[in-house]
Amino acid sequence: MHTRFQPPRAGQAGLVLLAALATLAGCGADDDAVQPAQLSPARPAAFSGTCDTMQARLAGLADTTITAAQDIAAGTLTVGGQPVPAHCRVTGRMLERTSAVDGNSYAIGFEMRLPLAWNGRFFHQGNGGIDGSVVPATGSSGGGPLTHALHQGFAVLSSDAGHAGALGPTFGIDPQARLDYGYQAAIKLTPMAKSLIGTAYGRGPDRSYFGGCSNGGRHVFNAFTRMPEQYDGYLAGAPGFNLPKAAVANIFGAQRYASVATNPADLSTGFTAAERATVAAAVLARCDALDGATDGLVQDVQACQAAFTLAADVPTCSGDRDGSCLSAAQKTAIAPIFSGAVTGSGAPVYTRFPFDAGIGAGGIAFWEFTAPVALDSGAVGFIFGVPPQDPATFNGPAWSLAADIGQLVTSINASSATYTESAMQFMTPPNPTKLAAVRDRGAKILVYHGVSDAIFSAKDSMAWMRGVAAEHADAAAFARLFLVPGMGHCSGGPATDQFDALGALVAWVEHGQAPTQLLASARGAGNPGGVNAEVPAGWAANRSRPLCPYPQVARYSGSGSLDAASSFACRP
Description:
Strand order of the largest sheet: 2-5-6-9-8-10-11-12-13
Largest sheet: 9 strands, mixed
Number of strands: 17
Shape: globular
Low-confidence stretches: 1-28
Strand content: 15-25%
Structural class: alpha/beta
Oligomer: single chain
Mean pLDDT: 94
Number of helices: 16
Distance between the termini: 27 Å
């Protein structure tokens, strides 16, 4: 049950929440915290030997076939208009097998990029979606990055998580492929990658990092809960650590949109771009000034959720829908998507989604209207559900729009003799708020999440952070969450979405410099990392903002340019 209450004054919500976190921390189960170690900085080293001999030198790696080793010249890759230094690209596969269940061939495909001038660090890159592709091992974070791990001199690993993309979601019919995708591929790859690095440089990495966004962020959460001894820093963007629940919730949303769509074949006609822009404007009208500045950004996320309601703050159409209002039927259909998906009996499926100015952004449409029927249907049907669907008869759109949400929830929690772990076991991190093993060895966790993310709710990350604070009196000493107002899924939206979270994490892990903010900028015209078309016309092309550690809020200091981070400070 959700109780309505009077909207707090600007700043009050942050103070209340900060006090709540302090109270939770004070009664945490882990009050007798040890003093964590301060990890030493990584030491640079040069590549040992030549790249063209690496294939032969790596012949002894257990359960691994090296398929190629190739010199990549400086400038072949670029980031933010800057050349990526020369490196050796090694490709291979691990644990090749033929499935006894579906008859398909499987292996864990990977590539490692090894800088000739190495900074002594390893970056394990978690990839997005349902994996299945070995994307370039660069280690990016933040929208339109100006740098990334490879550019900074890390040895970087990328993998397909144990299955080929040509199979699509039907790889989930194979039980082992499910487990590899969920968490086991990363566990198997880690010692191999460190051994490979040892061959390349004559020693292993001094410091190891695991990073990724979306499903990659989910991989990060599994890494710090399942193998905390292996990594020193964890960088999770938009972490889908409850991905099976989020997928079911997205199907729930599709069914709600279908109920008010004027064209049953096009879910976006249930909530058009013009109507989403109207809701975004209403959110800004109610919430923009809560942080002290009317600037097109809702920094005080908590206060906004208390202040804004779809029913009262968005005009109700008195006649035909024309984009300037929502019909009563639309409000009835759409409100439960934000208040949190439920089963037919009212049991919660997934968390709430916050209202934010980014709801009008173009990228939202894919996640709201296409992904549920094109992606989530296959994921729930073949990868997460027990038993999986029959690919010979499966029709994703029809199946998802007709599915019983309660039955989908049952399926993602089910197991069998063939599928021995449910999706909620193999996909999600065990005990994600109990992090003494991470803390005690001096490791750090940095999470960022767009408030307008339409597939993985920022409120899920906020709840996780509160849970960490409840469990550990010293939570802020090793784990911090940074919300990105206006940003959609991993990047984009009317937001300052360009930032170097990896650099901040390295400074924290290796030099004890806890991040009190991340400096972020918009990607307007001329941005070297790529232009974000969602940057509002009234903003400076390089508008900057501090991203603040939750629950702090970037509040206007009362003077100075609204386009400059220096005019804002992180406060309760």
